[in-house]
Amino acid sequence: MNTIAVRVQNLGKRYYIGQKQVKYRTLRDTLADAFAAPFRRVGKLLRGQATGAAELDATIWALRDVSFEVERGEVVGLIGRNGAGKSTLLKVLSRITEPTEGYAEIRGRVGSLLEVGTGFHQELTGRENIYLNGAILGMRRAEIDGKFDEIVDFAEVEKFIDTPVKHYSSGMRLRLGFAVAAHLEPEILLIDEVLAVGDAAFQKKCLNKMQDVGQQGRTVLFVSHNMPAITRLCPRTILLDGGRVLEDGPSYQVVGTYLSTGLGTTADREWPELQRSPGDSVVRLRAVRVRTEDGQVAEAADIREPVGLEMVFDVLRPGYMLMPYYDVFNQEGVKVFAAVDQDPDWRGRPRPAGRYVSTAWIPGNLLAEGMLFVAAAMRTSERKFRRFHEREVVAFQVIDTLEGDSARGDFAGRLSGAVRPLLEWRTQYTPDGNKLDDAYE
Amino acid sequence: MQEDVERHATTADFFHGMAEVPIIRIEPSQGWVSLSLRELWEYRELLYFLTWRDIKVRYKQTVMGAAWAIIQPFFTMVVFSVFFGKLAGISSDGIPYPIFSYAALVPWSFFSRGLTEASNSLVGGANLLKKVYFPRLAMPVATVLSGIVDFLLAFVVLLGMMFFYGIMPTINALWLPLFLLLAWTTALGTGLWLSAMNVQFRDVRYTVPFLAQFWMYATPIAYPSSLIENPLLRTLYGINPMTGVVEGFRWALLGTDTAPGPVIIVSSLAALVLLVGGAFYFRRMEKTFADVV
Fold first, then answer.
1. Is residue A406 part of a domain?
2. Who among B28, B50, B290 is closest to A96 (CB)?
3. Which chain A residue shows the shortest CA-CA distance from B49?
4. Closest listed residue to residue B243, CA positions, set B186, B281, B201
5. Which domain holds residue A111?
6. Which SS3 state, helix, strand or coil, does residue B237 take?
7. pLDDT, tens digit, for every residue of B221-264?
8. Which of A259, B31, B44, B245 has its CA at 20 to 30 Å from residue A29's CA atom?
């Protein structure tokens, strides 16, 4: 029995840059170009410049020589920088756009979810949109009938089900869209960064739902920038860069490569331009760095040594009581801890304008080994208001040495757990066990 | 090699009794591609929902609502009756001018609206094109289909006018669905060409209203085709498929004696050429839609 669900062979997709940048052309432009192009070409020839199709029509390969196979029931993550070709790959696999070369073979019904609520119509009610959206995503009418109540339940919109969607809040619309999509039952599911939106609680619900999906033996290809989600949901990950497969293997390994090669989150993140930095008119985040005790920016830290999380921010409007804080996640997406600024000099004190560098020291012998992802955030205490919240702003690796003086002792195997504190072990020894009772007297 | 893979797959499926697992092969297409009408049929529920959406949404947030379906042809008829019927005194084959022109305006409105909206269907639904796969033909097809509701509303008024003028429909009225199909085919055929071109060239959007107006005067709506006396020329007039539709409607409902036989044949052929050509052109351009729109 053939268990390959998706086979991709030397797949390539070329875009004409003109096509990608200029949304559309008018006939006049095309005619003018058609007239001018030959002259331009002649001109180039006379000037001795190279000609040829590649030179004349600037193109980019969004995908090139991409080959991989996905077994039935596998859940595979797709990661890479923006523009690495992840979304293009999903578009090709879901037949939205055609490849330029190579081929892909897909066995089974495909459901693709590149956006939540595709085709929602503002004027239609929630009920009507469930049917419309379901049909667009490839569900049969009978199928939607059967799952209707479940969908409404998941979306938590019972009361508004007969209200036009235009009166919904954006959160409700999103929930409704995801609820429909979550009840798709294709054999192969292609998912693009759709979880990057929505409130945290619902996001969690979606992630759980997706985990269920994986456990039902469905084949899933999942694009995300959310590394913890990737490592949690997908045993295997494919890393794309510049349209090519850079690495394909176990998620923890591939995610590790992604982060350590500087393709993804690193230990040092800066926003040189104030206008583009996260934040608002009160405070802006300018840099976050991971440092070791000797002040070096470090991608990796010894498990026994403290690690400093340094946050550089500019206060633009004085008079606010600021609370910088960090959330630290591990590879499985588990939040290991959250920590709010405790510096007694600034606690409960309005801050004057200026630049601040706040460093939080994580003691050695606390974190477990592996990749850790840091979210840097800022609240003002007066109002429960988040000034910025940057997820996965930096990441670093904790390495457990095998010298025997960390919490793993002399055990060299795989040690799990979210933290790995070095505890104080005490041992009482009695040479003759039979006299145990006496020893306590 | 390619065929080997596929043959292997089908044999395997046969032996494991899972023949229903579809194998989709995604590869670059070259030049003209097949219409994949079977796939369109498999997506008939989506076609249904898209049509249903167009109908539901059309007159939302309008004061007049579905009355718009009647107002447009009706008032055009009034204007035509005053200027062409009364002032210019154009002949109407012995039938009261208002119903003579209205019987033509009903299928015409269906056609021109279908044409206009089909042309914009892809650009209007750009978001769908970029985010989800389905046979793209479904979009213009659904748009033209949804116009049938408007047609029926305007048609009821036509029946009322016939009653008012004391005109009994003849047995030929049984042919009406065919004439409607002809109008639908023409609208879709033209719409396919224009919608596919519109993706590439937004000029189409500005061309369509002009084209529709031009086409209306090239169709015997305000005047009878009997103005053309040479029978051969009149038959050739059928190259404009809407000539066949309009004359067909008048013949079937009002009993005009311009028996449309040869005209209908020419019109049907023309419409068919338009539709088939449009469908193939559409399919050929289809692969660029999501990238360009």
1. no
2. B290
3. A132
4. B186
5. 64-260
6. helix
7. 999 888 888 888 888 888 999 999 999 999 999 888 766 788 89
8. B31
Of A379, A399, A419, the residue that ends a domain is A399
pLDDT per residue as tens digits for the range A240-261: 988 999 999 998 888 888 876 6
Q: What is the mean pLDDT of residues A357-377?
A: 91
Q: What is the reported pLDDT for A272?
A: 84
Residue A436 in domain: no
Q: How far apart are CA A69 and CA A6, in angstroms?
A: 6
What whole-number distance in Å separates Cα of residue A250 and Cα of residue A74? 12
pLDDT at B15: 38
Q: Is residue A158 part of a domain?
A: yes
Task: Domain ranges for chain B, please list them.
Answer: 37-292
Residue A115 has pLDDT above 70, yes or no: yes
Q: What is the CATH number of the domain that holds A391?
A: 2.70.50.60
- Identify from A87, A97, A132, A180 which residue to disrupt to test chain B contact, counting B C-beta atoms within 10 A and taking the largest count: A97
Q: How many CB atoms lie within 10 A of CB B248?
A: 25
Query: What was the ipTM of the complex prediction?
Result: 0.81
Q: State the total domains in chain A.
A: 3
Q: What does the alpha-carbon distance between residue A288 and residue A265 come to, in Å, rounded to a whole number?
A: 11
Model-wide pTM > 0.80: no
Spatial CA neighbour of A322 closest among A294, A301, A343, A297? A343
Contact A131 B26 (CB under 8 A): no
Asked whether residue A164 is domain-assigned, the answer is: yes
Sort out which chain B residues have CB atoms less than 8 A from A15's CB and list them.
291
- Of the candidates A239, A369, A356, A349, the residue with the CA atom closest to the CA atom of residue A304: A369
Distance from CA of B118 to the nearest CA of A (A): 17
**What CATH number should be reported for the domain holding residue A250?**
3.40.50.300
CB contact under 8 A, B56 and A124: yes
In terms of domains, do A351 and A244 share one?
no
d(CA B253, CA B255): 6
Asked if A24's CB is within 8 angstroms of B200's CB, the reply is yes
